[in-house]
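Morning run. Coffee first, then this:
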Amino acid sequence: MSSEALYQELILEHNRKPRNFREIENADRTIEGRNPLCGDQLTLWVKMDGDRIADAAFKGQGCAISKASASLMTTAVKGKTRAEAEALFDRFHKLVMGQLPESEQASLGSLRALGGVSKFPLRVKCASLAWHALHSALENDEREVSTEREGPEPPPLEGA
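And here it is:
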């Protein structure tokens, strides 16, 4: 089986059985995110322990890429410091934009499965939504994250 087929299967598995698909009671941060073009909507809960992410979870609906990305992200960031999570976000964003050198992709582990979206610009928004919600949560910015400019919301996600 090719690595591309394995990655597709990993995305489908995380869509069918998303990890951390639940609410967190007494979360320190709760962020809403949406991608109107695809219909993706999610709520992200983050529980901090000082500067470290103690727990992260999400609920929502959307395409397989969006749900798989949120599932993989919440798994990847647990136990990371704020700085480590932001560095992971930067590497992931470069991956889905097709800008991360192949030599650096192995450091992303299973997140590499989403690298193929770089060939489909509209799907970059699906893969990035949960990550931008995490970034807002870590910045303690409670505004809804959206992939499109609408009304008083923040501008569109950079590069998406």
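Helices lie at 3-16, 64-77, 82-96, 102-105, 121-138. Good start to the day.
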